[in-house]
Write a structure and sequence with these properties.
The protein is of the alpha+beta class. It has seven helices and nine strands, in the order H-E-E-H-E-E-E-H-H-E-E-H-H-E-E-H. Strands 5-8-9 form a three-stranded mixed sheet. A two-stranded antiparallel ribbon has the order 1-2. The protein has a two-stranded antiparallel ribbon with strand order 3-4. Helix 3 packs across helix 5, helix 4 runs antiparallel to helix 5 (172-238) and helix 5 (172-238) packs antiparallel against helix 6 (244-278). The longest helix is centred in the middle third of the chain and has 67 residues, at 172-238.
């Protein structure tokens, strides 16, 4: 029976050989390097050895690649909701409405009366009436203690109420109210305008991304068709059925289609970046657009949709 220390040393050596073999033609010949870095990472093993109570416990866990983030499926309504929640312009407009409402209430307060109340208490520790010669032994140091007078008392309470109302200000108060009302309406119109502009921008970006994805698909299909046409013409040239000029013309048509594919892909990437910016998504996030009234499912270029996986990888 193999001892635990020797078993641990053997497993660590095997793990080192596996890791070293990842960079040279695959993992010990069991996983070819042609399967790519992701396949090598999936075939790698994380070996842990633990000795407890004289027994050997071997843990072998497959080091699977990091799970890709689930794609974000967006309809137009969802895109509008996400954009409004993340829009700084709309947030600024809403803050402007709140500020204008506060100013309007402040201006309206000038038409209402102002009422105030005061409460006070004073404790007399030493009275100035102690020096009066008329103080009697019965009343102590205060000669007015037996009288109900407002002064000379040991405990004094002061209560006061005041009220004021602007009767005439030359129309200044009403003019201030009209100005505040106009400012509030202006802020509310600005909020509606900001939301409408955001809805327009998101709708335009949404359909631009969908259209650019379809145009990129058409351009890629046209390139594939030009490749097939060139292959057929070259095959006909080899058997003597087509002229060399036909093959040259097919090759030129194929080469002319390639810049269009590059341009369409660039337009698609820019359209999706603009949409992601509006809906507050990262550049690495995968986006799937569900276009209403159509069977088209547009992909953001990260392989989220099965029908667009080939386009996303190219």
């Amino acid at each position: 029976m193999m001892k635990p220390i020797h078993a641990m040393r053997t497993l660590l050596q095997v793990a080192g050989m596996l890791v070293a073999g990842r960079g040279r033609g695959g993992l010990l010949g069991f996983w070819p390097a042609s399967r790519g870095r992701q396949g090598a990472a999936a075939a790698g093993a994380l070996v842990g050895v633990r000795v407890a109570g004289g027994s050997l416990l071997v843990l072998a866990l497959a080091a699977a690649p990091a799970m890709a983030q689930a794609p974000v499926r967006l309809t137009l309504a969802e895109a509008l909701a996400r954009a409004e929640a993340a829009s700084e312009t709309v947030a600024i407009a809403e803050a402007g409405v709140l500020r204008a409402r506060g100013e309007s209430q402040q201006a309206r307060s000038g038409l209402l009366p102002s009422v105030g109340a005061t409460v006070g208490y004073a404790r007399t520790l030493e009275s100035e009436y102690e020096a009066l010669s008329g103080a009697s032994p019965d009343t102590g140091s205060n000669p007015f203690a037996g009288m109900k007078l407002p002064f000379g008392q040991a405990n004094r309470y002061d209560l006061g109420v005041s009220a004021s109302q602007t009767v005439f200000a030359g129309g200044r108060v009403r003019a201030r109210n009209r100005i505040a009302g106009s400012g509030r309406r202006h802020a509310e119109i600005g909020l509606v305008s900001a939301r409408a502009q955001l809805a327009l921008d998101v709708t335009r970006a949404f359909y631009d991304a969908s259209l650019s994805d379809r145009l990129a698909s058409i351009a890629e299909a046209s390139l594939a068709q030009a490749e097939q046409t060139l292959a057929h013409v070259q095959a006909g040239q080899r058997v003597g059925e087509r002229a060399e000029f036909d093959a040259l013309r097919a090759q030129v048509a194929r080469d002319n289609q390639r810049p269009q594919v590059i341009q369409r892909r660039t337009d698609r990437d820019l359209a999706y970046m603009r949409l992601k910016q509006l809906v507050n998504l990262g550049d690495a996030d995968s986006v799937v657009l569900v276009v209403p009234g159509s069977d088209l499912v547009a992909d953001g270029g990260h392989g989220a949709a099965p029908d667009a996986a080939a386009r996303a990888g190219s």
